[in-house]
Automatic annotation (TrEMBL):
The lineage of its organism: Bacteria, Pseudomonadati, Pseudomonadota, Gammaproteobacteria, Oceanospirillales. The keyword Plastid does not apply. Keywords: Acyltransferase, Transferase. This is Putative acetyltransferase. It comes from Halomonas daqiaonensis. The keyword NADP does not apply.
Length: 141
């Protein structure tokens, strides 16, 4: 079931985000992700429309939209590769005619995932905080 997140769930969502980020980005230090956790909980998630995915009465993933920009899409690493991320994106795409997102270029799995959903790379930049290249991807109906 996909539904709006509650404020009380944000600590759990940040835990999912942290574990999934560390797994998906071995080229970025664990300390970097840990340093961003409070910002994610207190500033980034509250500024977005956050939807959670429940399975068996347990929140296993979420997506966070800021207007037409996908700020976050994360699934608990324990249950990745079962289509949950695709389900969250299908829900987000049904409610938008255009979506953009930034993804680290070296995260080949994520770039491939978004390409399969119809996203294309439209720009690239170097992230000043990590020195890693990021790709701006866009999708439109």
């Amino acid at each position: 079931m996909i539904r709006p997140a509650t404020w009380e769930e944000f600590p759990h969502l940040v835990d999912i985000w942290l574990r999934a980020s560390q797994q998906a980005h071995p080229f970025i230090s664990e300390a970097y992700w840990r340093a961003l956790a409070d910002d994610m909980a207190l500033r980034r998630l509250p500024a977005c429309e956050v939807l959670v995915l429940e399975a068996g009465q347990r929140v296993i993933g979420f997506c966070a939209m800021h207007g037409d920009h996908l700020e976050a899409l994360f699934v608990d690493p324990e249950v990745q590769s079962f289509g949950y991320g695709s389900g969250l994106m299908a829900h987000a795409m049904a409610g938008h005619s255009y979506i953009t997102l930034w993804v680290y270029s070296r995260n080949v799995r994520a770039v491939s995932f978004y390409r399969r959903l119809g996203f294309n790379i439209v720009d690239e930049r170097e992230d000043p905080q990590t020195g890693e290249w990021e790709s701006l991807m866009a999708w439109s109906r």
